[in-house]
Specification:
The chain has 249 residues and is α/β, with parallel strands linked by helices. 45% of the residues lie in helices and 14% in strands. The longest helix has 20 residues.
Length: 249
């Protein structure tokens, strides 16, 4: 672990780069982290969720990475699956390695934590469900499928909840549950579900989906809590938030 000047964060400090200003996921993330892990949040300001916006946001994110590295945080986590996923699995891995070499600090992306969590849970066939589908993003789902396929998963389907990007926060956990359950019943060969996106509040229904469908479910908030603990050499299980956080594989 790097030596930092954040004396109150005795287990380490993570710099988190949020794509939007949407509330909810940051609070959930901080509450789930063990005591002693500090968080420095920064924001890019994505508002529309279109591909060009995420391309432009990547340049902003790198500037923030440089700033966080200057603060000597222990780990940097750029959130927002499209930020790296749209570049493809292999290219995004190369970009992360280049950034780590340039700024001399460990970096883990949302795509990385989702993949690592799914692998840790032994999932082979992964049903991908995004937090939104505005009817204009068909190419985005193809890129999701390609990204996870190149990472070694079979992908029965990649779909999005029918809501505009700006309205993700209005989706109830039980609407998300119903959508995921219906999609799984359409693709029962799936060995697990990946709920992509931090904007919708799915954390509460992850245990319900796992209980009812008898398969593991990966969601962004839980996966990042797990992956960050792992990288900071911390292991503090969390009850009632799904298999990943309960077992800390």
């Amino acid at each position: 672990m790097r030596e930092t000047h954040f004396s109150g964060s005795w287990r380490g400090v993570v710099g988190v780069i949020k794509p939007t200003y949407r509330p909810g996921s940051l609070e959930e993330f901080i509450r789930l982290l063990p005591e002693g892990i500090g968080v420095i949040p920064r924001f890019v300001g994505v508002t529309e969720g279109v591909e060009k916006e995420f391309v432009d946001a990547f340049a902003v994110a790198e500037k923030i990475i440089a700033e966080l590295a200057e603060m000597k945080v222990d780990l940097i986590h750029p959130e927002g699956a499209p930020l790296f996923v749209q570049k493809g699995y292999r290219r995004s891995e190369e970009i992360v390695r280049d950034l780590e070499e340039k700024y001399s600090i460990p970096i883990v992306t949302t795509g990385m934590v989702l993949i690592e969590a799914a692998r840790a849970l032994g999932i082979k066939k992964l049903l991908l469900i995004s937090s939104f589908d505005d009817g204009r993003s068909d190419s985005r789902f193809a890129k999701y499928a390609s990204y996870f396929f190149d990472a070694g998963f079979q992908v029965p389907a990649a779909k999005g909840f029918p809501v505009a990007f700006a309205d993700i926060g209005s989706v109830s956990p039980y609407e998300a549950y119903a959508f995921a359950r219906k999609l799984y019943l359409k693709y029962p060969e799936s060995g697990g579900i990946c709920l992509i996106g931090s904007g919708w509040r799915v954390l509460d229904v992850v245990p319900l989906l796992e209980q009812d469908l008898q398969i593991p479910v990966v969601c962004a908030v839980a996966a990042r809590v797990w992956a960050i603990q792992k990288r900071l050499h911390v292991r503090q299980p969390v009850k009632g938030r799904g298999i990943l956080l309960e077992t800390m594989p």
